[in-house]
Amino acid sequence: MATMPMRKLTMARAISEAIGQEMARDSNVLVWGEDVGIYGGIFGATQGLFERFGPERVVDTPISESAFIGAAIGASQEGLRPVVELMFVDFFGVAMDQIYNHLAKNHYMSGGSVRHPVVLMTAIGGGYSDAAQHSQSLYGLFAHVPGLKVVVPSNAYDAKGLMTAAIRDDNPVMYFFHKGLLGLGWMPSDDLAEVHVPEDPYTIPLGQAQVVLEGKDVSVITIGAMVPKAVRAARTLAQEGVSVEVVDLRTLVPLDRDRVIHSVKKTHGALIVDEDYRSFGMTGEIAAVVAEEALDYLDRPIRRLAVPDVPIPYSPVLEQAVIPSVEKITETLRQMTQ
Amino acid sequence: MDNDVMMYRTMCLIRRYEDCMAEIYTEGKTPLFSIAAGTVPGEMHLAAGQEPVAVGVIRHLRSDDAVTAPHRPHHFAIAKGVDLGRMTAEIFGRRTGLSQGKGGHMHLFDPQTHFSCSGIVGAGFPPAVGAALAFMKQGRDNVAVAFAGEGAANQGTFHESLNLAALWKAPVVFVIEDNHYAISVPKAQSTAISHNSERAQAYSIPGVYVSGNDVLAISEAAQEAVTRARQGHGPTLLEVETTRLYGHFQGDAEAYLNAGEKESWRQWDPIRRFRAELMDRQMLSEEQDERIQAAVNQQVDDAVRFARESHEPEADEALRDVFAEA
User: Fold this and answer.
1) What is the ipTM of this complex?
2) Minimal CA–CA distance to A218: which of A284, A288, A268, A257?
3) Domain that holds residue A151
């Protein structure tokens, strides 16, 4: 395949390209879910797949999440590698039993004899006034339960490589794409997510964080849509003479502890930024990792920015008040480095 | 051995196994009952009395056909051909068990016989539809069977799965094993319809009710359903009436049963009835029956001995198998 030197793709295109290439490579890879067929996925993650592979391999399902997610359990046991979409992470409540009691645990409960190579993908995040039932992140819930890998890409390049790796993984992988990174045109999207994506298939191993920006004065440890926000904050700080390191975790499970610890040991400061809820989530977990393994290297307290334990509100003014913003990250970094 | 006699033998094996488990379950739990103590800790749901359902249906399955079973799984596992020694070792929590002691009696998995079960009511329906979907997509003529109690027919998963399977014409048979009680709640108090098989109409698939806990009647209905699925004509819902001769779990005082109810079930014991029928038809002699009883006793004794002689797992086994290695 000829690859243009700097072919830029939106994250939505990168995801559908990865799935399409894996479908071409392995006939056991099937896609099903709500509106994944002709519509191409409400967020475009399956765009073009129906036209290319037909209704036999790209299957629209009824709004029966327990049944079609649970079907991925039996199907993967019998040799398929399903990629299943459930539109919004907020909708998972009705199907959680199939996920956290079965998909996540069967490998363990079977002593390793049963495998579930399944990708469950869904949209996360707010920023466009969709309110409390369509704007959550919630990946912390899934990362809490043993047995699920948790992927949250921050840009198109990672999105493709992580999706390819997720499909080839023999474990259930929860793949969360942030709506504000997809480049959809009909909702705000951070253009930092639209980057060069090689046409040929490639994988990014699950469990490898990425230092997006090298710095020496303080580390921002974050994931998903907060990564470009942290980069923007870091650029502002750079103009003020402060060198910020931005670490993109890319996956919560497996968690690249070494990369986090290495960064904090270097900068002696940690700001953890997340769009999920604050308590009992990613920010607390990373803070604990730093406290357990790099406490002596810290020269100031760990700081956290996350949704302050309230549901996501509707009105733009209210929503902007709770989701960490570039300004809030910038201001917190200033406080930490003064 | 004749097919009917084979079915009788498997039913006897299941009964012997369940009676034996009931006995072993009390080991280490007296004088004061503790669910955490003994050779077999945790909950124990036994299926004595429900043998005809498992045997009558599974006789029509091949080893590569898939079965999902509920929290009361032993009769299905035995009928499907799961290794009795490894299953028993699993129930004993030993390292030679199907899952090295990480699953226990409600979580038996055997990829060789395509058997799995779950401790969550109604959870086996969607995976069975998924297995059936895989068979279709891969061009295999296999069939998936989901077994569940009548309580599970009130779960959303049941209705979602019937609709999905009907829509996809998936080769799956749904079997509702109606033992009259969802733990303590009688069906009349939980279910707005008198026969779950009638719910099939809502999904335009055949629904068949089999009364009497009669293995031959069950087998006949199952043969049609399995054949229909295997030939690509889609799912069937079977509702099979049966009786639970032990409680919901061992230690259940069964205060919710009507006076004499249990006794009437025991008098109507499906194995005793089938034995009499086979003898009437001169397909089984006393002598043959004695040989069968001796053989199944031996099989169960061997499995129990294997489990008892097996070591417990090392503690760090607990940290293995969360994720599959590449």
Assistant:
1) 0.96
2) A268
3) 8-196
